[in-house]
Amino acid sequence: MLSALDDARLSDITSSEASLRRFLHGLPGVDQVGAEARAAMLATRSIKTTAKQFAIDLAISMIDLTTLEGQDTPGKVRALCAKALRPDPSDRSVPRVAAVCVYPDLVATAKEALGAGSDVKVASVATGFPSGRTSLAVKEADTRDAVAAGADEVDMVIDRGAFLAGRYGQVFDEIVAVKQACARAHGANDDGAGAHLKVILETGELATYDNVRRASWLAMLAGADFIKTSTGKVVPAATLPVTLVMLEAVRDFRDAIGRQVGVKPAGGIRTSKDAIRYLVLVNETAGEDWLDPDWFRLGASSLLNDLLMQRQKMLTGRYAGPDYFTLD
């Protein structure tokens, strides 16, 4: 853990490329063997009966129900929004998901389909998703357009090439600028705070756990509201050890800075067992404060149906076929 950092120290850390590099490379290194062993051990934890029922409902409430395909249509997004609002139309006790995540040009469609005042958020990828390799002006414009159309959250992808080349200042400045664009674009949100910013690290391209820790801290220092593992377009996407490192980072960041940041693993999370493993990881690493949709999300498309199947099995003693629920 790091000691508390005051405003003057923070200002010094972010004042130049050199000071950012000194700080990021001065972070404690990640014990690769230890991180992987701990994640594997926590994955064996068993949850039964009422605790499992609670975990399934909690996981449903944390889902960012996602469609990010070139073939996405307004009709598909409207169907996705209907499922977000009523995951199982036959059972009103099933919680709503946290958000739907779509491309910027479909934000207005999603917002309309969810209805005014909906507690299901609209998230939108922006900033040259999934590569992150566009000009800053394009990234800012993309963000402003998404939030003006009604996006409550923006999922920004960092330029991994810049990060891996050690251009930390460039990555920091781009995150700061996009965060400001989220605020400037405010108008469609009701809380007066603009859109929340989730920063996608694309951990599958960062090569080492040390880089994951550095990228996590860089994003948080720049103002990220959430740090997110992946676009879902790169393999590997979310993994338990990577998420463990990110959860340690947000825990230590809050201890040092006093600001809580959320975590979103995304990509490859398909089963109820997967989801529950992530919830155990959150509880044992960051703590109960993060066991809330405001602070932890699961980016997924096919996960919801498996959670619904497991939920129905616990309630009725029988499995429904996969075709019982609408396709994601």
TrEMBL record:
<keyword id="KW-0704">Schiff base</keyword>
<comment type="pathway">
    <text>Carbohydrate degradation; 2-deoxy-D-ribose 1-phosphate degradation; D-glyceraldehyde 3-phosphate and acetaldehyde from 2-deoxy-alpha-D-ribose 1-phosphate: step 2/2.</text>
</comment>
<dbReference type="GO" id="GO:0009264">
    <property type="term" value="P:deoxyribonucleotide catabolic process"/>
</dbReference>
<dbReference type="GO" id="GO:0016052">
    <property type="term" value="P:carbohydrate catabolic process"/>
</dbReference>
<dbReference type="InterPro" id="IPR013785">
    <property type="entry name" value="Aldolase_TIM"/>
</dbReference>
<dbReference type="InterPro" id="IPR002915">
    <property type="entry name" value="DeoC/FbaB/LacD_aldolase"/>
</dbReference>
<dbReference type="Pfam" id="PF01791">
    <property type="entry name" value="DeoC"/>
</dbReference>
<dbReference type="InterPro" id="IPR011343">
    <property type="entry name" value="DeoC"/>
</dbReference>
<comment type="similarity">
    <text>Belongs to the DeoC/FbaB aldolase family. DeoC type 2 subfamily.</text>
</comment>
<protein>
    <recommendedName>
        <fullName>Deoxyribose-phosphate aldolase</fullName>
        <ecNumber>4.1.2.4</ecNumber>
    </recommendedName>
</protein>
<dbReference type="GO" id="GO:0005737">
    <property type="term" value="C:cytoplasm"/>
</dbReference>
<keyword id="KW-0456">Lyase</keyword>
<dbReference type="GO" id="GO:0004139">
    <property type="term" value="F:deoxyribose-phosphate aldolase activity"/>
</dbReference>
